[in-house]
Each structure stands twice: as C-alpha cells, then as structure tokens.
Amino acid sequence: MASSICYCVMGKKTSRPFLLMAVMCSAVGVVLGGTSSWAESNQCLQQEVVTNQCLVQDPATKTVEGMGTGLLAGMGAAIGAMWSYKSKK
Questions:
Q1: pLDDT > 50? residue 1
Q2: Element (H, E) at 6
C-alpha cells in the first residue's frame, strides 16, 4: 500500500500531494508572473513620456523573466504550505 502512495524522486520518497501542490503552485506562479511582467511592459510603452529603458527592453524577455520569478515564488509557496501542513500533523 505504501508503494502506491509514495514514489521515488531522485532517490528520496516523495508523497503525491506534495508533488501535485508543487506543480500547481508553480504553474499558477508562472502564469501570474508572466502576465504581470507583460502588463508592466505594455503599460510602460503607453505612458505619455516613454523612457529610454522602456524602449530598449524586449517585452518577450521581460515576460520570460517574470515567468521565472513566478516559478520560484510558486515553488516557495508550495514548500511553505507543505511544511506548515506537516508541522500541524
């Protein structure tokens, strides 16, 4: 029974709920981070006085950077949530 609940990832036993939470939080983080960075770059271009920094930055690069930040934030949120859950058990 225990083998159906846990499986091995890089030599360590990991529970499915943790992996599911990590994937879901990371996906939400990627979407929110990418959307936020994309909106910020569009807002920068729509200002009355456009700065030089706004003109030289690539919106695609800015979006990918936001997605990466969101991924890290989502993983941190999943680790924190599971840590809190396991400490209450």
A1: no
A2: strand 6-9
Contacts for 51 with CB less than 8 Å, ≥ 6 apart: 44
**DSSP for residue 58:** -
DSSP E strands in 11-70: the ranges are 12-15
Residue 4: which pLDDT band, with cuts at 50, 70 and 90?
very low
CB 73 within 8 A of CB 9: no
> What DSSP state is assigned to residue 31?
H
pLDDT at 5: 37
**CA 86 and chain centroid, separation:** 22
In 3D space, the residue among 15, 12, 3 whose CA is nearest the CA of residue 86 turns out to be: 15
